[in-house]
Amino acid sequence: MRSRDIVTEFVKASASQGIDQECVEVAHTADGGRAVRDSKDRDGGTQFHASAAWAAFVDGVKAGAFEAL
User: Fold this and answer.
1) How far is CA 64 from CA 17, 41, 53, 69, in A?
2) Taking the model in full, what pTM does it have?
3) In the predicted model, is pLDDT for residue 68 greater than 90?
4) Strand positions, DSSP E, the chain
5) Smallest Cα–Cα separation from 61: which of 29, 31, 24?
6) By three-state DSSP, how is residue 11 classified?
7) CB pairs under 8 A, 24+ apart, for 52-58?
8) Separation CA 25–CA 16 (nearest Å)
Protein backbone atom coordinates (compact mmCIF):
# COMPACT_ATOMS: atom_id res chain seq x y z
CA MET A 1 0.00 0.00 0.00
CA ARG A 2 1.31 3.44 -0.90
CA SER A 3 1.25 6.36 1.55
CA ARG A 4 -1.23 8.32 -0.59
CA ASP A 5 -3.66 5.44 -0.95
CA ILE A 6 -7.07 6.55 0.29
CA VAL A 7 -8.24 4.06 2.91
CA THR A 8 -11.62 5.51 3.96
CA GLU A 9 -14.63 6.99 2.22
CA PHE A 10 -14.62 10.73 1.62
CA VAL A 11 -16.81 12.57 4.14
CA LYS A 12 -18.23 16.04 3.57
CA ALA A 13 -17.06 18.53 6.18
CA SER A 14 -19.79 19.46 8.64
CA ALA A 15 -19.20 23.17 7.90
CA SER A 16 -19.88 22.44 4.23
CA GLN A 17 -23.50 21.38 4.70
CA GLY A 18 -26.21 23.28 2.84
CA ILE A 19 -27.26 23.99 -0.71
CA ASP A 20 -25.01 26.94 -1.54
CA GLN A 21 -22.05 26.11 0.69
CA GLU A 22 -18.51 25.49 -0.48
CA CYS A 23 -18.18 21.73 -0.23
CA VAL A 24 -15.02 20.03 1.01
CA GLU A 25 -14.64 16.29 1.49
CA VAL A 26 -11.90 14.62 3.53
CA ALA A 27 -10.66 11.01 3.64
CA HIS A 28 -7.86 9.22 5.53
CA THR A 29 -4.74 8.06 3.70
CA ALA A 30 -2.63 4.98 4.37
CA ASP A 31 0.12 7.02 6.05
CA GLY A 32 -2.27 8.69 8.51
CA GLY A 33 -2.60 11.87 6.48
CA ARG A 34 -5.67 13.25 4.76
CA ALA A 35 -6.91 13.59 1.20
CA VAL A 36 -9.07 16.65 0.47
CA ARG A 37 -11.25 17.34 -2.59
CA ASP A 38 -14.04 19.61 -3.78
CA SER A 39 -17.29 17.65 -3.69
CA LYS A 40 -18.68 19.72 -6.57
CA ASP A 41 -15.67 18.88 -8.77
CA ARG A 42 -14.47 15.44 -7.71
CA ASP A 43 -12.47 14.98 -10.92
CA GLY A 44 -10.74 18.33 -10.40
CA GLY A 45 -7.98 16.86 -8.27
CA THR A 46 -7.23 15.78 -4.74
CA GLN A 47 -4.84 17.42 -2.30
CA PHE A 48 -2.81 15.20 0.02
CA HIS A 49 -1.61 16.38 3.43
CA ALA A 50 0.80 14.59 5.74
CA SER A 51 -0.41 13.66 9.22
CA ALA A 52 1.63 16.36 11.00
CA ALA A 53 0.51 19.06 8.55
CA TRP A 54 -3.13 18.04 8.96
CA ALA A 55 -2.80 18.07 12.76
CA ALA A 56 -1.29 21.58 12.63
CA PHE A 57 -4.14 22.75 10.39
CA VAL A 58 -6.78 21.32 12.75
CA ASP A 59 -5.04 22.94 15.74
CA GLY A 60 -5.07 26.26 13.89
CA VAL A 61 -8.77 25.96 13.12
CA LYS A 62 -9.54 25.18 16.76
CA ALA A 63 -7.44 28.18 17.87
CA GLY A 64 -9.32 30.50 15.49
CA ALA A 65 -6.32 31.23 13.28
CA PHE A 66 -8.43 31.24 10.12
CA GLU A 67 -11.40 33.31 11.27
CA ALA A 68 -12.25 36.36 9.18
CA LEU A 69 -11.25 39.69 10.67
Assistant:
1) 20, 28, 17, 11
2) 0.80
3) no
4) 11-12, 24-28, 34-38, 47-49
5) 24
6) strand
7) none
8) 9
